[in-house]
Write a structure and sequence with these properties.
Elements: H1 8-11, H2 14-28, E1 31-35, E2 60-64, E3 67-75, H3 81-118, H4 128-141, E4 146-153, H5 156-163, H6 165-181, E5 188-193, E6 196-202, H7 206-222, E7 232-239, H8 246-266, H9 270-274
Antiparallel strand pairs: 1-3, 2-3, 4-6, 4-7, 5-6
Length: about 280
Amino acid sequence: MGKSRYSFQSLFETGNIQVLQDALSDTLHVGIQLTDADGHAVTGLSAVGDREFQAAKPGNAIMIDGDVFLYVLMDLSGLPEEDAEKAENLIMVTFGQMTELAFDKKAALQHQGGLSERIDNITGTMTKIYFENRLKVIDRSGVIPVAVIAGNINDWKYVDDNYGKKESNRLVSVIANILEEESQDDYLIGRCDGDVMNIIIPKAEYEEARDYCDRVQKRCMEYEDVRLAPSIALGIAMKTNVEQQLEDVLSDAEYEMYTDKVNLKKQSGYKDRLKKGMPT
C-alpha cells in the first residue's frame, strides 16, 4: 500500500474541510483530525470540550487508486461502543465520498485540459500544436503519398469588423463543419490560426484531394444564411517522396491557396454575396 501522488491541497480547500470536520465533531461528539499519508496534520484538531484527544495512529485510511490519500484520526472514547461504531462509519463515509467526488472532478478537469490542448473549442478540429505534431508523426512513418491542403477562410476579418466576434466565430464553425462533413475518417483537419484551416489526407492521390476541395467549396456556395457567405480558398500540394517534410509541402499548398483566393474573389457576384447582410 503506497502513498497517493495527490496532495490534500490539490483536491480540497482546507478551510472548507475544517468547517465540515468541526461540524461532524460537534454533532457526533467525536474528536477528529486529518493527516496526510506521512502522518502530517492537514487540518486542525476538532476536540470535544476539554477532553484530551486520544486516537490510535495512523488512523483510518482513505484511499485513491489503491494508495493512501488521508488518514482520519478519531477519538471515540466518550461514546458507547454501538454509538462509536456508527459515528466512525458516518465520518469515514463522509470523508470517503467527498474525496471520491473531489478526485473525479479533478480528473474531469485534467481531461478537459488535455482536450483543450488538442481540440479547438470553436471548430472541434485539431489545434495548431496538435496538428503540427501529427505532421511529424506522419513524416516519421514514411507514408506516401500524402495530400496536403492549405485553407484560408475568406473575409473572416470583414465579418468580424461588421458583425462582431460571435458571427466571425460562427463563420469559422460553419466552414469547419463542412470540412468535417465532406471528409473521411482518416482526414486530419486543424485550425492553425484564426482563419486558417489545414487538411492532411494520408495515402491520397491528387484527384481525391481535388474532389474533396471541390465538394467543400460547392457546399460553401450553397450555404444559405441571412448574413454569412461562407467561402474558403484551398490549395493542394502532394508529398510523394519520403524525404519531403510535410511542413515544406504545406508551404507549397499555401502558395496554391493564395492563387485560389484571388480567383474566387474575381468571380461574378462574389462581392454582392459577401455584403448581403449589410443594410442598404
